[in-house]
Each structure stands twice: as structure tokens, then as C-alpha cells.
Amino acid sequence: MNSIESFTLEVADPAAAERFYTTAFGLGDRLRVRASDEPTTGFRGFTLSLTVSQPANVDALIGAALEAGASTLKPAAKSMWGYGGVVRAPDGTIWKIATSAKKDTGPATREVDDVVLLLGVSDVAASKKFYVDHGVAVGKSFGRMYVEFETTGLKLGLYRRKALAKDAGVSPEGEGSHRIAIVGGGTPFTDPDGFAWETTSIAAAS
Prior knowledge:
Protein name: Glyoxalase
InterPro entries: Glyas_Bleomycin-R_OHBP_Dase
Shape: globular
Organism: Amycolatopsis heterodermiae
Order of helices and strands: EHEEEHEEEEHEEEEHEEEEH
Distance between the termini: 21 Å
CATH class: Alpha Beta
């Protein structure tokens, strides 16, 4: 279960979402979309992050997203850990684009180093144990605050729900469908906070 092949977003208009993500981020088969009208309100309990090599790349990706129809949640800015900003895609998904670098080392590109899914969970320790029991290895762990798993392909982490919402610049309140599925190997399952893992065959058939 340490391999994540893609993330599937459930959206009201798949064609529009595909146009947006192709234009804004160009993630190819790392991100898929499918139709869903499952009800959801407020914060969906997760954020997706694009980590890049330098501040200029952050600006390039955020600029492309805004031009394609995204809205700003947090403008790009410097911080103690680097440089980044947060946008909301037209389908409602929250994206953080960030780098740990403080200075540019070359011309701006829209190259993405890693795609990271952060799950906002009610009990980090309990969710960590659940994932370990399902064969997902822990890379880094900071008590009951944050867990980063050692996955290949795409990346996965756990964060307290309220802290994740604060980092994204939104209220933690929300309910209904998460509207995302994690696609990887092994047996399908749903974690304690309702996030679903699917096999490639299930995702392809949806």
C-alpha cells in the first residue's frame, strides 16, 4: 500500500475540470476527475499541494491557475519555511503551491516536483495507526500534529483538521462527501475520516 498512482477528484462538470487542470497545472495522469453530485458543504477535509523548486515556479503556477478561473485563498508570500500561496479551483478543491527555497535559481517554469495530499483528520494518532496497520509506512511523524508517509509516486500526509483548514485560509466547518479518492495498489478501504482508497481497476471503471 505504499504506492499512490493518482488522485481522483469528483466534480460536477468533468469536462470543465479537465480543461482547468490541463491549463493550470498540467499534471497528466497523476490527477483524474469523474462526475459526482454527492452533496458537500464547506471544507472538504483535505488540501492538495504542489511542491516546486523555486519561488518563480510558485508564481507561474498560481498565475496560470488564476487565469484559468481559480480564486485566491492566500496570496503567495514568504514565510519561515519558504514561499507559497493557496488557491481554490473552480470545482472547489483547495490547492497549495509552495517551495522551501527562498531564492530563484533559474528561469520560471511550471514544473512540479511532488503532488501531496494532506488529509485533515480528527485524531492524527488513530489515523496514523490505521494506515500503518494497512501497510503504509511512516516517513516522518510529529506527535499528534502531523504525519508524512513514505509513499512512492504521489505523497500523502495527515494533519489535524482545524490546523489544515487554518493553513489553507478557510473555516474548518464542513460536511458531506470529500469528493476525492486515492488510487493505488492493494485492497480498497475507507479510513476513519471517510477518505477512500481505490484500486486502479475500480477508478478506471468509475
